[in-house]
């Protein structure tokens, strides 16, 4: 038997293959026009098959076709939100006197201490503008946060009394006074300094220290959720996990120039492992002398582990330890955004706002940096740099949102009799803003939304096989048959030899 040439090899395989058109292409008896037709048809079928294959491949490996399964979870598996309460008016009048300082600034009559007082006031007073060129003193060595801490309201001036279950009037360590984007505020149920920040954070942030250790993480939940006395405090329907507080602010000691036309308090809900950022959901308690019942609801999110094969951009979230931050130990979307905004401010202005996470050697922005800082804030608000931050949410996440909010006059006794005695308000005069709040989780199911790829691998194999069969007439058995015959082609008779032998026999006969 003669050696097998490539042409004969292709002719043999095309003859026994079920792939459509190959037999016509390899057959010497097929006319030239027919061969052109079948070659064109074969190429078009192959290209069509390849085009649809790319679409199927994209659904499986590039942009997942997502689906979600919703189940219910026990409340005790998740923490009560961290609650941060900030008064609208940030500065006592006796400590700021902004109107007087601005008048003196225009006439260049400020002393060095008054210049410092004006610079400090500008840190927390929104949209406060003045000609910083008239400030001649250098305050680079001044600890801005320490100075703010001394002049702003303390915990007892904002929340003189609060009740959490059986814990009455215990402001420490349940409440912590911290500095935020809204000045000094009071926060509840937040993690300790050592559990929120890395070692690279500035020492100013040690005001977040309260000494209570947690056994909860966002990725893994509580270590032992059935143990009593867990921190952060768990959600439940029990009255022991209801936050009740009296909020008070002295109207006679408020600098109206700092936050004009606003009275009352802002209440923010966020995760216990986050600091307060401008992106957190909030409630504005503008109505004073009211008893407020605030109910929130929570929803848990989880991404199936099989989604790890997709890129972060495709699944739009980070799995645990997939993204690390410079200043925070726990990755959350809000922590990422505030760190990104801080880095942008440092990059463009050479400084960071006093409340932004920053390194030990980074200076705090002052009045002469206000134009640059305002531009960075505006760009971030317009989402110009949002996507460059890559601040996708974690794949295991927990979100809080307002469910209902009702209020009543204090005289109506809406919930006053349930939590406080009237004697608690004896020290409240007409010169004070008084607000009562009760915060608890709503009586609604806690939903766990689990996302997964709706397009599984077996579907991919099925669709790919269907495309090959439809466009090319190819199947698994076709491929097996080709491989089998490729190894056994030497045992097959050669067609051309058979034709020549038959011709000789005909002539002999």
UniProtKB/TrEMBL annotation:
<feature type="transmembrane region" description="Helical">
    <location>
        <begin position="36"/>
        <end position="57"/>
    </location>
</feature>
<keyword id="KW-0894">Sodium channel</keyword>
<dbReference type="GO" id="GO:0015280">
    <property type="term" value="F:ligand-gated sodium channel activity"/>
</dbReference>
<keyword id="KW-0406">Ion transport</keyword>
<keyword id="KW-0812">Transmembrane</keyword>
<dbReference type="Pfam" id="PF00858">
    <property type="entry name" value="ASC"/>
</dbReference>
<dbReference type="InterPro" id="IPR001873">
    <property type="entry name" value="ENaC"/>
</dbReference>
<keyword id="KW-0407">Ion channel</keyword>
<dbReference type="GO" id="GO:0005886">
    <property type="term" value="C:plasma membrane"/>
</dbReference>
<protein>
    <submittedName>
        <fullName>Uncharacterized protein</fullName>
    </submittedName>
</protein>
<keyword id="KW-0813">Transport</keyword>
<keyword id="KW-0915">Sodium</keyword>
<keyword id="KW-0472">Membrane</keyword>
<comment type="similarity">
    <text>Belongs to the amiloride-sensitive sodium channel (TC 1.A.6) family.</text>
</comment>
<keyword id="KW-0739">Sodium transport</keyword>
<keyword id="KW-1133">Transmembrane helix</keyword>
